[in-house]
């Protein structure tokens, strides 16, 4: 398993990362034939809302970002629509930092129609951009590019990487086709 940062320095205490992998397997992993973002086929799916719906689990996952916050010292936390907003909200609350949301498409209505970003920010702000699960990283990298176009300095991170994206994550979770989660 790889973790955020260099391989010899995991993002959090190793027991927390072991717990995260265990809770993914116990609560969020389903087996079947699934089409993931970008059209990739997989024989397993991680339903992050089975994790995020439990406030104790969500809070514990949010705490795993503490070393990242200490490292980059962001001015705000950003989250990608939809699951990234959930984790960004929890991290924002724990870190006492403001939060913004990055939409996949502009909402097209209201006071800020045609804008991708919800919430206050300033050009030059350092943003920790969070995503829940990444497969190819396309949506996360597109959100980062949108924020950079607005003058923010962005560090994109995910809770879980399925191992196909060049994105830093708390945990890389990938199973070879047909492998059991215990491997």
Fraction of residues in β-strands: 25-35%
- In the CATH classification, which architecture applies? 3-Layer(aba) Sandwich
| Structural class determined from secondary elements | alpha/beta
N-C termini distance: 11 Å
Mean pLDDT: 87
> What is the name of the CATH topology?
Rossmann fold
Task: Give a description of the structure.
33% of the residues lie in helices and 26% in strands. The protein contains six helices and eight strands. The strands form two sheets. The protein has a six-stranded mixed beta sheet, with helices on both faces. The protein has a two-stranded antiparallel sheet with strand order 1-2. The chain is of the alpha/beta class and 183 residues long.
Could you provide a short overview of the structure?
With 183 residues, the protein is an alpha/beta fold. The chain contains 6 helices and 8 strands; from the N terminus they run αββαααβαβββαββ. The chain is 33% helix and 26% strand.
Can you lay out the helices and strands and say which pair or pack?
Elements: H1 14-28, E1 29-35, E2 41-46, H2 49-52, H3 55-63, H4 66-72, E3 76-80, H5 83-95, E4 99-102, E5 117-118, E6 126-134, H6 138-149, E7 153-161, E8 168-172
Parallel strand pairs: 3-4, 3-6, 6-7, 7-8
Antiparallel strand pairs: 1-2, 4-5
Helix pairs in contact: 3-5
Structural features:
33% helix, alpha/beta, 183 residues, two-stranded antiparallel sheet, 26% strand, single chain, globular, six-stranded mixed sheet, disordered N terminus, Rossmann fold
